[in-house]
Amino acid sequence: MILAPLVWLASSALGPSHQESRTLAGSLPRIAADPDRFLAFILLGLLSHVLLIPAVLGIAHLVKKRKPTLAFTGAGLVIVGIVCLAVVDGIQLVQHQMIHPAADREQMVALLQRVEAGIGVRVVFLAMLVGLFLGWVTLSVGLFRPRLVPSAVPASVIGSLMLNLVGLEILSRVVLLIGLAWLGVVVLTMRDEVWMVSERDEAL
After folding, report:
1. Residue 89 burial by CB count (10 A; 0-12/13-18/19+): exposed, middle or buried?
2. Angle at CA of residue 48, ends 47 and 53, nearest 5°
3. Range of the structural domain that residue 72 is part of
4. Which residues lie below 8 Å from residue 117, measured CB to CB, with a gap of 6+?
5. Which of 46, 100, 102, 156 is the most buried if burial means most Cβ atoms within 10 Å?
6. Number of structural domains in the chain
7. Whole-prediction pTM value?
């Protein structure tokens, strides 16, 4: 819960701006200017997505005893989104090779435009957006438990989604880091007995 958003923030700081990455071909000039930085962006992104899976499952575990439907639905949707993010990472690895001196830049741009216009990539992007957005919203609703989790935690997760939608990607990652890190600290510092007692009290 702490490492995943931290690594994701580092990845976003290295990557193309939101404006540059609106199209697949739009990132090529940035990649060509500093290919090593772009590769670091991809690899850190992959690592953050791998770390996000246990973080999501951990959040689902916190939610499932009280709201199992929200836990399983939210976690499932987010994991679908993470899988789609991994597909995007694969496309970015191909982009990284497209700026090689031996590659024909016009052909590479044309190829990316065809890929972007294809139904397969559109489905992946749609599934990524829907899965991540609805999944995090669902898990955040399940986390609204004032006696155990500060309300600012799920609010910050939802807030990060809103910021990302309007293109404030770095700020979005910072807000997500604050929310998930705060939740991670709460989980690490709270004894299991306290958590179980609070759950029984809520059930009553």
Report:
1. middle
2. 100
3. 3-203
4. none
5. 156
6. 1
7. 0.84
